[in-house]
Design goal:
- A 3-stranded antiparallel sheet has the order 1-3-2.
- The chain has 6 helices and 3 strands.
- It is mostly helical.
- The protein folds into 2 domains: about 60 residues, Orthogonal Bundle (Arc Repressor Mutant, subunit A); about 50 residues, Penicillinase repressor fold.
- The longest helix has 17 residues.
Length: about 120
């Protein structure tokens, strides 16, 4: 699976939401938030194409970029990577830490309980 940088996530978010996009469309959408020039977006797109994260279709002289990876797959890979890097792969340690630091609300805890109960039913 392809590991995306923070900058690449910004581009992928746009493409997952509304693809295909031209270089100029991407640049306009990213310019206000990031300040990136067209050349910066080109650099990211080339790198992402080499990684297999985006693909493009040429129509005349214009390239239309689309995601080449599924968002759910990228999210799962990012979650696994974060969990391994920060909590040595231990999801219980992560949740315990969040509860102790009050970084998770009562509503989020209830949702987590619901998810766990439903997941257990599926087993």
């Amino acid at each position: 699976m392809t590991k995306l940088s923070d900058a690449e996530w910004k581009i992928m978010d746009i493409l997952w939401r509304d693809a295909p996009k031209t270089l100029m469309e991407l640049t306009r959408e990213l310019e206000e938030e990031t300040g990136w020039a067209k050349t910066t977006v080109i650099t990211f797109l080339k790198r992402m194409e080499e990684k297999g994260a985006v693909s493009y279709e040429e129509r005349g002289r214009t390239k239309y970029f689309s995601p080449a990876i599924d968002r759910a797959d990228a999210e799962l890979e990012e979650t696994r990577s974060f969990l391994e890097k920060v909590f040595r792969g231990n999801v219980g340690l992560m949740i315990s830490n969040m509860v102790k630091q009050e970084a998770i609300s009562d509503e989020e805890l209830e949702e987590l309980y619901r998810i766990l109960r439903e997941g257990k039913k599926d087993v």
